[in-house]
Each structure stands twice: as structure tokens, then as C-alpha cells.
């Protein structure tokens, strides 16, 4: 039947092994080689083992054959001893014939030793193989009587050897089959199939399929290779993914780079346009500055003459004429303030405002303003009240002209918009906070009125230029006062705030809080006018250069009245000629900034270029802001600078600081009543940034007269401490004006604190 199992046979086993091996090796090149090497590896030891076993068996058979040969010879010798001695031939033949029944024995011959004849000789025709001979002596007792010659064939031996060879071949063949039946499946399972799987996985890997992981559970070398390949696959996958991400990032970067290049081109175009616009703006600003300087010069120069000559005429005028001159001076001062407001506002828009801090008394500043504006407030039937709460912190460093301008604008507006009411000026030194610098104090300045108030809608625009509370009222003005006041307040580090309500007698309150350095008092500075008769010492010669004859004449009249010899020039070139020809030499020169042929800067360059006049004091008196040429060296500068219009007191102060004069007055100086009068006892704390070593260095430089070094140090400290810049600027200004006593008082105050 078909379902009956087939009988087990060697042929069936070999066929099964062949089929399995053929399937395993069909698509492999290295596998047959491995199997061949394996078979050779198994066969060689088996062949070697079989060879040695066969050699051993062969040796044993040969030894057995030799032993049989000698033993048979000895048996024949013993058996034939008596027969040979008794010459019993027939019995000997019968005995030998019985031995020939052994097919191995080919020939037996007994020979008599005494006669040398053959006693018996028999042959076996059925003997096979090679013949082997043995001679055995025959003894009778101890006497040798003959020999037995025995020939045996090795056919039996060859048969035994062939049988042993067949047995060994069969044994080793069976053993080989058993080993192959065990080793080949193990080889297929352990080596061939893993290699085939490794090949399949490698094929997938080479095809780019990196997602499929290799699962290797074997712990042998092939398993290690598989796991290593899986690790390589994983890392290769990560590398390719990273390369893909980098390629994506690079694409984004390239796109961004193109966008950046486009934006850079656009920015470059915008930059060029901006530079052109900046250049046009700078040119426009320069033109505006030039225009402002020209306007300032053209407006201030006549005012300088008007106010100056009014002041000169006031000396010898009658009481009635003095009242008329007072009207001229008051109107001139009002016109000057209006011009200053317009020019300051325009200049503040064009470039930052430069402050000139000086020591001043807050209480005396308030008293001075109250004295000036009390009559102005009375015109509207108003009462002006002054409240001063400064205590010991009365002396500060601030730009007096700018601070005065802010308060004047606020008081002027209060007087304009208040009728039959009250105006209050409150100056207050606020308490110092624990974390604040002891060299600084907080000052609050308030102007409060009971006027018409300011509507809520106009409070935001009240500080904008050219905005007035009511354009249709009879109250005049340009709408610049509050704008300029706010501009100056911000330049000083503060801001004017407004508190107001609309309605009758609701009033307004303008407040300004500033952080100002505490100042050292200086008794030498006073504002009260003191008639000067002359000066002590030798007669001095002054050179005055101005293209306006009236300005030149006013300065000359003032100086001649004080006892100076005056030389006049219309421009810088004429002034240089007069300077070189003057005898005795000129002691100081007062020059206007803008003059025909040669301006003040050209005159200064000519003065400094000559060794004879290099140290001549030169004072710039100009109706416009000082504009230094870019090509002029930094070391070349004027000894002093003043703006027109110039009062007698200011002119006297300039000459005193420049020439070191000591004035002779018509009467003793009055007590300190002006806003700049100082008390020698007002202390100033040392700034926190100044160490003891710096104070000692300051005193040492002051003792050696090194004012330029002190000035340099003060400018450096102003850059390091912007909040205390007014203090250091005041020190630098004192060095410029050679105010050694003031510097000594400051050094002493710092040493004490």
C-alpha cells in the first residue's frame, strides 16, 4: 500500500541527506566549500586513525604468521628427531603428510646433517601466496643431527588482511555517515540557514530597506555578526534620517539665505536712502544752525547796544529819565527773553541743549524772582507769595540761566491767566532717601495760581510748541513758553507736571522735581550791582574787535570808564595788525565771533601762532552760539566766552577772571541779596565715587597749581557719573576761570566729609 512506510536502508538515508544538502547548497557558493572542508576535516582524522589501526592489525597478523611458522618448524623438528635418528623414513613421511593438510604449508624437507642428504621432502600443490622459509635444527639430546626446512605461503595472511580492510572500511564508512547525518543538519541549522538569512537581510539592506530590524537570538559568532549588522543598520538609518533632516534644514537655510540676501539688498537700498536723507537732514540742520546763528547775531547785536547804553545813561540820568530808561531796559529785556525763547526752542530741536551749571542759592533765586515778578503780578491785581523750604540744602549746582528761564515762563503764564487771585512760588528741598547719593539732593519747584485753569482736552497739548490756551483771547504770546520750559526741564533730567481743573478760580499747579548736586558756597560771586571806579595796579591795555560800531563803542566806553587803554578794530585782520604794533603790549583782547575778512577763530589762530602773543588772554563776545571749526586743534581755545547782550557786571566779571583784577568800588559792597550770593558755610558732601586717595590727589594738584590736570580729571569723572555731571562741570569751569579759592574751599569740604 502507498501508506506503508518504506523500509529503512542506507540508500534511503543517503538520498534524504542528498536532497536536504542540495536544497541547502543550491543557491549558495560558500556553503559547499564549508561542507567540503568539514568532510575533509572529518575524513582526514578518520583515515589517519584507520591507517594506524590497519598498520597495527597488519603487524599483529605478520607476527602471528611468523609465530605460526616458527612454532610449526619447532614441532616438526621435535617430531622428526627420533625418526631421523632411527632412519624411519616411512613413518616420517606419514607424519609430514599429516602436516601438509594445513594449506598454509607449501613444503617440508628434513635433511641429515651427517650425510648431507635429504631424509624426507614433501610438497603441497594447494599452497597460495608468497612463501616464507624457516630452518629449524633437529637435536637428539644435545646433538644436532639435522635440519627441518619449512616453507609456508602467506595467502591466508592476505585473506586476513583483506578481511580486516573491508571491516575497517565498512566501520569507518558507517561512522562517516553517522557523523555526516549529525553534522550536516547541525551545519545547516547553525551555519547555512543563518548565513542564508544574513544574506537575505543584507540584500534588503543593500536595497535600501532600513526599517526592518534584524532579530538575532543566536549567541555565536554569526549571531554577533547579525547583531552588529543590525546595529550598523540602525546607525545607518539614524545617519540617513539625520542627513534628511540636515538636508531639510539646509533647504530652509538656503531659502532663508536667499530671503536674507533679498532683505540685505533692500536694507542696503534703504540704508543708502537713509544716508542720503541723513545727509540732507544734516545739511538742513547745518543750514538751520547757520541761520539761527545769523538771526541770533542780527537780533542780539542791536539789543546789546540798546541795553548797554541804557545802562550807561542810567548812571548820570535824572530820576525822571531813569524811569524812562527803566522802561527801555524792561522792554529790551522782554524782547531779549522772547528772542531767547525762539532761538532756544529752535536750537533745542536742532541739537541737544548744553547746560552750564554754576553754584546758586535756591532761596535767593526764589527771592530774586519774587522781586522781579511782584510788580508784574500786581498788574492783574494778584498777590505773589514765596515759600522757601530748603533748610541746609540751599546751595546746588545748576544752570542758573536755564532754571531762571523755566520759572520765568511759568510765572509769566501764571500772571497772564490769573486775575484778582493768588500766585505762589514754592521751592522745596525734599528729604534724602536712604539709597541716594549724599552728594545729590532732590529739589521741587512749584508755581501755583488761582487762574482760569486748563481744560482736560488741552492738558496733553499744552506743552507742545505754538499751542495756546485760547487763540481768540486778548492774552498775547507765541505759545512757546511751556514748550521751552518742558524742553529745558528734560535737558536737566526732570519733567514738568500739571495739575489743573477748569472753571473760575480753579487754578493750575506746575511742578518740577530735579536731582541736583549739592554745591560749595562762594563769597566772591554776587549779583548786586556795584559801581566800579577803577582797578588796582598798573594801567592795562585792551583790544576790542567788533564789526558793529555801536557794540564796539559800548564796550570801549565801559572799559575806558574803568581806566583801561582801549584799541579798536573792525575785524580780525585789523585787530592782528594793531596787536603787533601796540606799545605797550596788549593785556587782553575782546573779539566778536563773526567779522569780515577774518573772524574770531582766524584771529585766535594768528594770536596763538606767534610766540610773542601765544599767552594773550582772548575773550569771545558773540551774539550767536559759539561754533568751533572742525579743523581747529582741540588745544586752541578762547580763555572766556560770553553772549550778547553783555551787562557791565558781566563784563567786569570777565575782565576780573581773565586779568586777575581787584576792583575799586565807589562804596562798600552790599550784603548778599542776589540769587547767586553765597554763604561760605554751606557744606557740600563728597560724592560717593570720590575716594580718599582722589581727594589727596586733588589737594596735591591744587597746591602745585596744576589746574589743567584738575580740569581733565573733572571731565573724566563727569563721563563716569552723568548724574553728578553738573558738579564736575562746575569744577572744570572754576579751573578755566582760575578760581583757586573756590577750588580750595571745595577740597577742604571734601576732606572734612
Automatic annotation (TrEMBL):
Source taxon at top rank: Bacteria
Would the keyword DNA repair be found if you checked this record's keyword annotation? no
At the top of the EC hierarchy, this enzyme's class is transferase
Where is the protein localized? Membrane
Its Enzyme Commission number(s) read 2.7.13.3
Residue list for modification 4-aspartylphosphate: 592
Question: So which residues are the signal peptide here?
Answer: none
Which residues are in the HAMP domain? 189-241
Q: Which residues form a coiled coil?
A: 222-273
- Keyword Phosphoprotein in the entry? The reply is yes
Q: Name one GO molecular function term.
A: phosphorelay sensor kinase activity
List residues traversing the bilayer: 33-54, 168-189
Its recorded reaction(s) are: ATP + protein L-histidine = ADP + protein N-phospho-L-histidine
- Residues in domain Response regulatory? 541-659
Under the heading SUPFAM superfamilies, the entry gives: ATPase domain of HSP90 chaperone/DNA topoisomerase II/histidine kinase, CheY-like, HAMP domain-like, Homodimeric domain of signal transducing histidine kinase
The terms describing its cellular component in GO are: membrane
- Domain Histidine kinase: residue ranges: 294-518
Question: For the region Disordered, what residue ranges are annotated?
Answer: 666-688
Name the InterPro entries for this protein: CheY-like_superfamily, HAMP_dom, HATPase_C_sf, HATPase_dom, His_kinase_dom, HisK_dim/P_dom, HisK_dim/P_sf, Sig_transdc_His_kin-like_C
Q: What are the record keywords, sorted?
A: Coiled coil, Kinase, Membrane, Phosphoprotein, Transferase, Transmembrane, Transmembrane helix
A Pfam family per the record: HAMP
The name under which this protein is listed is: histidine kinase
